[in-house]
Design a protein that fits this description.
The chain has about 1450 residues and is an alpha+beta fold. Helix content is about 50%, strand content about 10%. It is built from 46 helices and 29 strands. Helix 7 crosses helix 10, helix 35 packs across helix 36 and helix 43 packs parallel to helix 45. InterPro entries: C1-like_sf (IPR046349), IQ_motif_EF-hand-BS (IPR000048), Kinesin_motor_dom_sf (IPR036961), Myo9 (IPR046987), Myosin_head_motor_dom-like (IPR001609), P-loop_NTPase (IPR027417), PKC_DAG/PE (IPR002219), RA_dom (IPR000159). Pfam families: C1_1 (PF00130), IQ (PF00612), Myosin_head (PF00063), RA (PF00788), RhoGAP (PF00620). One of its GO terms (biological process) is lamellipodium morphogenesis.
């Protein structure tokens, strides 16, 4: 709640109201309302509350936050900011905090030991202090860590830090903490400043990549069911949101769409997890150096193919099968021959019941949308679903003994028929491939019949290989959709962030070869984590020679050597035994026991049990040896490969192709040959039809729009792009030898492929800077918000969390070499300091850092994170101090220079004044003498005159008295005197008016408008007296005249703005306001979110409404439920008495769309100062500026700007913009404008900048358009004022676009060029549009003048023709040539009126941003010009109507504009 009285100027630092509810033993008020700053900490709020309530501040108090969800109470730390917690509350509880809403603060007493008092007697309450970072715990034990995690979990705080490592506990419940406002809240915030969140890790990784220009990676680990896949989705969602910069390029949508597709085909429901990933993936998002997404690559590892044909009876197959069977429409069911899920053998399970059928239908729709997002067309989706149906039908193939007993028969017949139809192969070849195999001998081929077990194995192998090939094909085409073509054309350095979502640790009742490989990959990742956290860290401490107590940890290198080290590793032995035809699973187990009986990590089983035990870092796990050899050599039979390659379906042949690039080239060649054959056949048919006089086409035409237009993706595949993608993901694809019908050499085993791809993955991750996320499963029953202490403690132990927290707490997170430390903190060091350790130690001691918080090694300086932040803050303050000193010195130089100039001017003025006063004295003496002499002469004259009058009277008295008679000419003397007096009054009135007009101190009421009205009134009265009448005056709006040179026509008191927010909206419509100041925009939800109004979910792929200002998210149906105003906007109000330092929205309303003071100053500059050199660059008088500022601030109507220099007025214009509390382009959009400028292409930058302008508030938007129009006027006169668009951008960029964060001066200075470029883009683009419009108007005026000249010439020639030939014309008829020319002239006048209207709308103060002149006006004018020229060239012959129509039609065509 911003505190501001009516008419009061808002302060730069606003205040906020907080309602505190005391829970204390003494009697106090029920609620305490405090007025604090937005950055006030909890300790400050407690002190203010204690002073208000009169509490004993010698006792300890705590501030608790109460949230509605579960009524949980959370104690705020002393350094936490309560206002930031309020921003996370619902909108209804932000302004005021009533207890009924469920979100408020409680003030409670705190015991001496740190526990809370209940408020009645000091007894202990439910919890102790909560820690965001486990390293902050005073006592580090398993119990304290477990208690801290449990306490945070039950308060819905599932994320906790362990220094830089994030610990995430899966609540098995969706929490509303992943909305876009959280992405904005954690944007560019250091790790640990806000509460722990996965978005904080994504943000730190993103900005670390940009700052250090190094690749980053996030490693997500944890057992199955701990939420790794969901965490990876949240990371991708946040990274794409950070990289968009307000302008989406399409790559982000493709990345978000790839997730649901891969999860549908690669995830399944298991006993531990309903959404378990059955493959590992590594998503690498590539960025430009500016932070814009360039592309991405998805790498998959070890798909669990055996799940397709065998799994535990309580588990499910892959998700996509259930999506297809439940969500398919009736038409799709008939097309793909789909059955019920329980009718397929591959989907059989115990108590088969799909309780989540509705969710499956919704997920199928989501899958459709996601496949379209990654570029899969409708025919492609049908091909994929057809292959899935064929795989399911393969499981329904059964075998029986043939009648002759020599072989097997496959059935049933309907299944084989449907299967052959889906695969588009011959049924005979299908049956032969499923029941027989061919053996290549030296001279001939032997056909052998399968046994029952061999036939079932071949059938399942075909299904697994087909599904694996389909999955590889999907990943390949997703990577092609994510490919940026510029990566193949130009060598531009790219940065990347990789997200590793590896398998979860698995321990089932029956563990086989798949679990063996998965657990081995977890061992490798765990070893990688230990290397970075323990081994490398402690080795660096020892190498630098600092004092360090080594921390012991459990190393798993021995287990890795047991499995993979040659020549005795289990994988190596398995490969050897798989190549021997006489070997069995039992012989393999015996060899394991024989070679590793004394290995501590290998535990043989007792007796003859076909199993062995391995001691993993998580514990002992038993593996069943059955089918190890078979699964290690699980390859597709050559007969199956030949069968599928004979399919009539090209998609099926593409799946089985050994080389995707070669198959693609062969497909192009086949298509070319087929097209040539079709064209030849069509040519022969057409020739025959012409010969027989028959129509080739059918008489029944298809109606337009009867067939839906097929959408074609933008980035079509070619051999070059496909080869590039295959080169990037070669290790993921099935080897060529496996898909060759006649392999020449033995293909590599599954274990060998898995080890190679895993080693390459770890090499990629090792080249990047890692971030770690540990995911923990809260309970084994998958219940919501249930914390199982035993299960969590077990996971903590085998991940080594206690040791991790210890080394993170006692270690040093910040490391600098001596050279790096000197370069970074050079400002804090003395001038003569070097990179010697002594100088660095003196600095650290001078700053008062403790000896235990830092250490200096041989080549590096080691600091704790808190001390590093203290150093950084001190550096920022010191830099700011130096900047202030430089500013003070520079201002002193300027003031000194101004003082000397003023001193010289004062001396000159004094000299001139003294000379002027001397001259005036001489002149005054002369005037006085002349007046005195004149007075004497006049006195003498009057004396003589009186004497003469007396003498005349005396003579008249001597004459006889006669009656006086008036002469006849003197009778109307009174009338003559009246007329004479009237003329005198008129003369006096004119003199008074002239003196008032030329008086410099006349009042503003006697302006030209008032004088004009009085003169008009006097003239009207005179006309009435003289008997003349006049029409009533027209009520027209006050306007300035049109300036032909500048093209300006400024309408005042106009409430309609020609600027439109939308390119398709009318230019005269008012801006569209949404409910209570919100500006909503729709977007497609990619991660399930919650509505801020109703609390229900917004499902994936649904449309959500989000306010671009306050980030409020809701359903469309909830828009009518909004009851709170937008927190970042303000309503229109009447302008107050202050005009500087006030928000723009306060100074504007419907009457004043633009602030009055700003409009006055801009119009004055445009009328008087456009030709002034150095406009806006030179500064005016400071005293005059203060005087004018005071006048404009108090009463701008009385200010006369003509009395001040133009530089004084321009200085006040810049000051008005600088003193805005929120700049014209707003703090909220500052970073978005900078990111828009960083885009590589000029068109993309321009589009992004204009896209951000639409998000400005209405008042800011209208003021900005008036300012840019003014700057375009200034830049147009560059040859006079020497102010180009770049110069104006340099001057105005700091005034209208500035950062709110001024703590780091380096960042502010770095952004100067970007802000200048942004403003220059606006000015240059509008200057270009202004020039184009004026050129069009000039062409129209030229066309009109040409038509007028043609009309005059036509009339002259007509008169001459009439006089020579004496052709009779009636009085009402005109010659044809004149009539045609008059028609053309009327058309030109109509076009001129249209152009005048366009010019008025374009050059008004609120100029148009997107309105373009309609081409018909220009075409019509030019066509009139052509017709006029033709008429002038042939005056004796009239222009035909057909020629005139042809010219008009040609001119109205868009293609004719360029060839005119």
């Amino acid at each position: 709640v911003v505190v501001m009285k009516a008419g009061e100027r808002p302060r730069k630092k606003t205040t906020v109201f907080l309602q505190i509810y005391p829970r204390l033993p003494q009697d106090t008020a029920a609620c305490c309302t405090l007025q604090v700053s937005p950055r006030a900490t909890a300790a400050t709020v407690i002190q203010n509350a204690g002073a208000t309530l009169g509490l004993d501040m010698t006792r300890h108090y705590a501030l608790l936050e109460v949230r509605q969800d579960g009524g949980a109470e959370r104690m705020l730390g002393h350094s936490e900011i309560p206002v930031e917690r309020v921003l996370l509350w619902p909108p209804a509880a932000r302004n005021q905090h009533p207890q009924e809403e469920g979100y408020y603060f409680i003030l409670q007493a705190q015991g001496s030991g740190g526990d809370l008092g209940s408020g009645t007697g000091g007894s202990e309450v439910y919890s102790s202090e909560e820690y965001d970072d486990l390293c902050s715990l005073s006592t580090l034990t398993e119990d304290t860590i477990l208690a801290a995690l449990r306490r945070r979990f039950y308060k819905h705080n599932i994320y906790t830090y362990a220094s830089g490592i994030l610990v995430a506990i899966n609540p098995f419940k969706f929490l509303p903490i992943y909305n876009p406002k959280y992405v904005k809240m954690y944007n560019d915030q250091p790790l640990g400043k806000l509460s722990p969140h996965i978005f904080a890790v994504a943000d730190v990784a993103f900005h670390t990549m940009l700052k250090k220009q190094e690749n980053q990676c996030v490693v997500i680990s944890g057992e199955s069911g701990s939420g790794k896949t969901q965490s990876a989705n949240f990371l991708i969602h946040c990274l794409t949101a950070l990289s968009q910069k307000g302008y989406s390029s399409g790559v982000e949508r493709t990345i978000l769409g790839a997730g649901p597709v891969l999860e549908a085909f690669g995830n399944a429901k298991t006993a531990q997890n309903n959404h378990s990933s059955r493959f590992g993936k590594f998503i690498q998002v590539n960025y430009l150096e500016s932070g814009v997404v360039r592309g991405a690559v998805v790498e998959k590892y070890f798909l669990e193919k055996c799940r397709l044909v065998f799994r535990d009876r309580s588990e499910r197959n892959y998700h996509v099968f259930y999506y297809l069977l439940v969500g398919a429409s009736k038409e799709e069911q008939r097309e793909f021959s789909l059955l019920h899920p329980e009718d397929y053998a591959y989907l059989q399970q115990e108590d088969f019941n799909l309780e989540d059928a509705e969710d499956l239908r919704r997920e199928f729709k989501r899958l459709h949308q996601a496949m379209e997002m990654v570029g899969f067309l409708v025919p492609t989706k049908k091909q994929i679903f057809s292959v899935l149906s064929a795989i399911l039908y393969l499981g329904n193939v059964t075998y029986s003994q043939s009648e002759d007993g020599q072989g097997l028969e496959a059935g049933p017949a309907d299944v084989l028929y449907t299967l052959s139809d889906l695969l588009e192969v011959k049924q005979e070849l299908l049956v032969e491939a499923l029941t027989k195999r061919k053996l290549m001998m030296a001279n001939n081929t032997v056909v052998l019949h399968y046994t029952l077990d061999e036939a079932v194995t071949a059938r399942d192998s075909m299904a697994k290989s087909l599904y694996s090939s389909l999955f590889d094909w999907i990943v390949l085409h997703i990577n092609h959709a994510l490919l940026n073509r510029r990566d193949m054309e130009e060598a531009v350095s790219c940065l990347s962030i990789g997200i590793l979502d590896i398998f979860g640790f698995e321990d089932f009742q029956t563990n086989s070869f798949e679990q063996f490989c998965i657990n081995y990959s977890i061992e490798k990742v765990h070893y990688y984590f230990h290397q970075h956290v323990f081994t490398l860290e402690q080795e660096e401490y020892q190498a630098e020679g600092i004092s360090w107590s080594p921390i012991d940890y459990k190393d798993n290198l021995g287990c890795i050597h047991l499995i993979s080290q040659k020549p005795t590793g289990l994988f190596h032995i398995l490969d050897e035994e798989s190549n021997l035809s006489q070997s069995t699973d039992n012989t393999l187990l015996e060899k394991f026991k024989q070679l590793h009986h004394d290995n501590p990590y290998f535990v043989p089983t007792a007796g003859m049990e076909p199993a062995f035990i391995i001691q993993h870092f998580t514990g002992t796990i038993k593996y069943q040896i059955k089918d190890f050899r078979e699964k290690n050599t699980d390859h597709m039979r050559p007969e199956i490969v030949s069968l599928l390659r004979s399919s009539q379906r090209a998609f099926m042949r593409q799946l089985i192709g050994s080389d995707p690039v070669a198959f693609f080239r062969w497909g192009i060649l086949r298509s070319t040959i087929h097209i040539i054959a079709v064209f030849k056949e069509a040519g022969r048919r057409r020739a025959a039809a012409v010969y027989l006089h028959l129509s080739v086409f059918s008489p029944h035409r298809k109606t337009k729009g009867s067939k839906r237009k097929q959408l074609i993706p933008k980035n079509l595949m070619n051999s070059r792009s496909l080869k590039h993608i295959v080169g990037l993901t070669r290790h993921d694809l099935t080897p060529r030898s496996l898909l060759h019908p006649h392999p020449r050499k033995q293909p590599s085993s599954i274990s060998a492929q898995f080890q190679a791809s895993l080693n390459q993955l770890l090499e990629t991750v090792g080249r990047a800077e890692p971030f770690f996320i540990h995911c923990i499963r809260s309970n084994a029953e998958k219940k919501e918000m249930l914390f199982d202490d035993a299960l969590v403690l077990q996971q903590m132990r085998y991940t080594g969390m206690l040791e991790t927290v210890r080394i993170r707490k006692s270690g040093y997170n910040a490391k600098f070499t001596f050279k790096e430390f000197l370069e970074k903190f050079k400002v804090l060091l003395p001038k003569e300091a070097t990179s010697a350790p002594k100088d660095i130690a003196n600095l650290l001691q001078k700053m008062g850092l403790g000896q235990s918080t830092y250490q200096i090694g041989k080549t590096k300086v080691f600091l704790k994170e808190r001390e590093r932040q203290h150093l950084q803050d001190t550096l920022n303050k010191e830099v700011m101090r130096h900047i202030v000193i430089l500013q003070r010195w520079f201002r002193a130089c300027l003031i000194r220079r101004h003082f000397l100039c003023k001193k010289d001017a004062a001396i000159r003025i004094q000299r001139c004044w003294l000379a002027f006063r001397a001259d005036n004295r001489c002149l005054a003496a002369t005037v006085i003498q002349a007046a005195w002499r004149g007075s004497q002469e006049r006195t003498d004259y009057l004396r003589m005159r009186n004497s003469v009058k007396k003498m005349q009277n005396f003579k008249l008295q001597e004459k006889p008295a006669t009656p006086p008679q008036l002469p006849p000419k003197t009778q109307p003397k009174h009338q003559y005197q009246t007329q004479h007096q009237r003329n005198l009054e008129r003369t006096k009135l004119r003199r008074r008016q002239h003196s008032e007009e030329h008086s410099p101190n006349r009042s503003p009421e006697t302006g030209p408008e008032v004088n004009g009205q009085k003169a008009a009134q006097r003239n009207t009265e005179t006309e009435k007296r003289e008997g003349r009448g006049s029409p009533p005056p027209l009520n027209r709006p006050l306007s300035f005249p049109l300036d032909a040179k500048a093209g300006r026509y400024c309408m005042l008191h106009s409430h309609s703005s020609p600027l439109s927010r939308s390119p398709h909206s009318s230019p005269l419509t008012s801006p569209l306001w949404y409910p209570l100041g919100h500006m909503f925009s729709t977007y497609q939800v990619n991660i399930r979110q919650s509505c801020d109004l109703c609390g229900f979910y917004i499902w994936v792929m649904e449309k959500a409404y989000m306010c671009s200002a306050c980030k409020l998210i809701c359903h469309k149906k909830c828009l009518s439920k909004i009851i709170t105003d937008c927190s970042t906007r303000c309503d229109d109000g009447e302008p107050g008495c202050l005009h500087f330092g006030v928000q723009v929205c306060v100074l504007t309303n419907k009457t004043y769309p633009i602030p009055m003071v700003l409009l006055m100053m801009l119009e004055h500059v445009e009328m008087n100062g456009l030709y002034t050199e150095g406009l806006y660059r030179k500064s005016g008088s400071a005293s005059h500026a203060r005087e004018l500022h005071q006048l404009l601030e108090i009463n701008p109507e009385t200010a006369t700007l003509e009395n001040y220099s133009i530089h004084t007025v321009t200085g006040l214009v810049k000051r008005w913009f600088r003193e805005l509390p929120d700049p014209l382009l707003t703090y909220r959009l500052y970073k978005d404008f900078l990111h828009a400028v960083e885009l590589p292409e000029q068109s993309e930058r321009l589009r992004a900048v204009y896209q951000k302008l639409d998000e400005l508030p209405s008042a800011n938007f209208q003021t900005l358009e008036r300012l840019v129009f003014h700057l375009v006027r200034v830049a147009k006169e560059e040859q006079h004022n020497r102010m180009s668009a770049n110069s104006l951008a340099i001057v105005f960029a700091p005034c209208i676009l500035r950062s709110q964060d001024t703590t780091d001066p380096f960042l502010v200075m770095k952004d100067v060029s970007k802000t200048t470029t942004c403003v220059e883009i606006l000015i240059s683009e509008q200057f270009r549009r202004y020039t184009e419009k004026m050129k069009d108007i000039t062409e129209l005026e030229y066309a009109e003048a040409l038509a007028v000249n043609q009309l005059k010439l036509k009339r002259r020639n007509t008169v001459r023709t009439v006089s020579l030939h004496r052709t009779p014309y009636c009085c009402h008829e005109r010659p044809p040539g004149i009539r045609q020319t008059q028609i053309r002239l009327s058309h030109c006048q109509m076009v001129k009126r249209d152009s005048s209207l366009q010019r008025t709308r374009f050059t008004a103060p609120a100029f148009q941003w997107r309105r373009a002149l309609h081409p018909s006006s220009r075409c019509l004018a030019l066509s009139m010009m052509i017709l006029g020229l033709c008429a002038a060239a042939r005056p004796w012959k009239p222009i035909s109507g057909s020629f005139r129509r042809t010219v008009l039609v040609l001119m109205l065509l868009p293609e004719a504009n360029g060839t005119l």
